[in-house]
Each structure stands twice: as structure tokens, then as C-alpha cells.
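Model it.
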Amino acid sequence: MVEQTTLRELALLFLRLGATAFGGPAAHIAMMRDEVVARRGWLTEQAFLDLLSATNLIPGPNSTELAIHIGWQRRRAAGLVVAGLSFILPAMLITSALGWAYVEFGTLPAASWLLYGVKPIMLAVVAQAILSLAPAAMKTTRLRVLGVIALALAAFGVHELAVLFGTGALALVADVNPRSGKPELERQSRQPNIALAAGAALGTTAGAVTLPALFWVFFKTGSVLFGSGYVLLAFLRGDLVDRLGWLTQGQLLDAVAIGQVTPGPVFTTATFVGYVVAGLPGAVLATVGIFLPSFVFVGLLTRIVGRIRDRAWSAALLDGVNAAALGLMAGVTWQLGRSALVDPLTVGLFAGSLLALWRIRLNSAGLITAGAAVGLARTLLG
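Modeled.
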């Protein structure tokens, strides 16, 4: 029996997360874990990791699908819709506004001051999540070894999806039983070539922009795409730049940059593109098109995810995937750290935020606001 959580509570939580979750899927997932596991106790660490593992293996934006699935856990179909829409809406509104400014003025607003202060804090949020999830994900020596192997393979450039499935298979062969788990990475570039081939097979030919064609491009993309904003870039370039000619290469790069620097799902790149090529109706249809498949996939996934732990072989497979994902998350954190910790001030922001999260249990949204203020103050005083 699902404990009752009001739809208003779900909406307020995910609206706030959608408005403050900078840093990409790994950071989004860390913030969700803080809210629904540590603060509210809606899920155990193990249940959270298992949901994350399952959503890692379907197309679409991983953190958005996790939000949708948490909504299902709390209020079934109504919660699924409310949580997902609430997480997407802030980013959609922000990105639409930036799309309007881009069309009007032909350039992007400067955001370096914001990222300067926010990045170190998001790094601390992700690091704290890794430390908290590690005991559940790495319960045995074998699982710890698998996590290290996954991290090493990713460092050598092995495809993330191959790492996840390969490590899961190793765990299954070794019959790893202990419960662990936590795939978090943003599913960075899972099967980009397969996704691109599928998109080409669904076919799009050059022509004038129409709203049905725009919706179809993004619905198709959301239905087959595994990966991060960089994979999204490759996919959309094939349709929007090469085949349809609706955008220039520079405009597409600007669109992906907007998705990366705004809070919430990176896939709201679609909102920006839709506004640039077809105004507000285009922004709405592109957003609906790219996210609609995620609601469908998660709705189908809810029918099986609860059974995975009931069978020894699937539980072992899931444990291996979880250990691999935690290793991948550590790799993402390392990469983020290289771009976020650039001087003594950012190192201090990171260390202070990590301490505050670990010992004082401050809310991550407040820390993010403080980081943005530090970045603005540095710009104004510098």
C-alpha cells in the first residue's frame, strides 16, 4: 500500500528541484536522493538505487524518468504525471524565455557568473550522494571490485551502456547476491549510433517548418535516444541541420549550451529549438514531443521493476549494474571537478558545501542560491 503523499507536495518538491537542479543528470539524481531518501524517507537507499538502475536502461532523460517514477511510487498515475510535469515545467519556462531573447537579440545572455558559483556546490551535492549511497551499492568485496572496474573502463573511454551491461553480466556470472546498487550516471552516450540509425530509418526530409513535423522530430528523438546532451547534439544535427536545414550548426550548439547551463532536464534543449524555429507553439510541441515517450516508458516500467528483486538472477544482475553506475558516477564527479574547481574560492565553496551537507544537512537548493550569489558578487566586484 502506497503511503499517501498529496499531489500538492509532489508538485512543490519537483517544481523546486526543476528550478534549482543545475549540473546535469548526476546532480539532479543526487538532489532527488537527498529529498526523497534522506529528508522524507519516501524510499530506502536500496529502493532508490533499484529505480535508478531500471530507468538507466530505457530511452530518454534519466533524471526526468526518475522523477516520474518517484511520482508513481507516491500517488500512482496522478503522481507520475504531476511529478514529471513539475520537474520539466521550470526549465521549459526558463528556456522559452531564453529562446525569445535569442530570437529578439541574436545572442545568448552571459551565464558564466552563475556557473562559477553553482558548479562547486553541485559537485559537493553529487559527492555527498556518492558517499551516502556507497554502503548500499558496495556491500561486498566483489561489488566494490566491479565498481572500480567500471570506473577504470569509463576512464579508458568504454561506452557507458557497455560498462553497465557488462558489469551486470559479470555480477550475474559470479552470482553476486548482496543487495547494492545505484546507477546514476546520466546515461551519457548510450548507443548513440543505434539511436542515430533508428532516427534515420524513421525518416525526415528537407522542407519548410511545420508544427506536426517539428513534433515528430522530437517525439522520434525522445523515443530512441539514450544519452546526454552531447548525444542529443549529434542526433538533432542529423535531422535539424543536415536533413531539414531548419537550424545552422551554430544555432544548434547554442541550443545545447542553453540546455546545459539552465536548471532541470538537459532535454529542454528541445524547447529552445522549438521556439527558435516556430515560436511559442513550436516550443510547446517540441517539449511535449521529446518528453512524452518518457512518461510512456516509465508507465510500462512500473509493471516490472518491483519484481526484479524477487528473483535471484535478476537481483544479481541489478546489483552489478548498480555497482557499475556508482563507479560511473564517481567518474562524472571527477570530470565535473576539473571544470568546477578552478581557484581557491571555488575549492572553498566545494569544501564548505560538502561539510554543510554532511554535518548540518542544509538544503541543497539554499546552497545553490548562495553559490549563484557568490558568482554574481565576484562578477560585480571583479
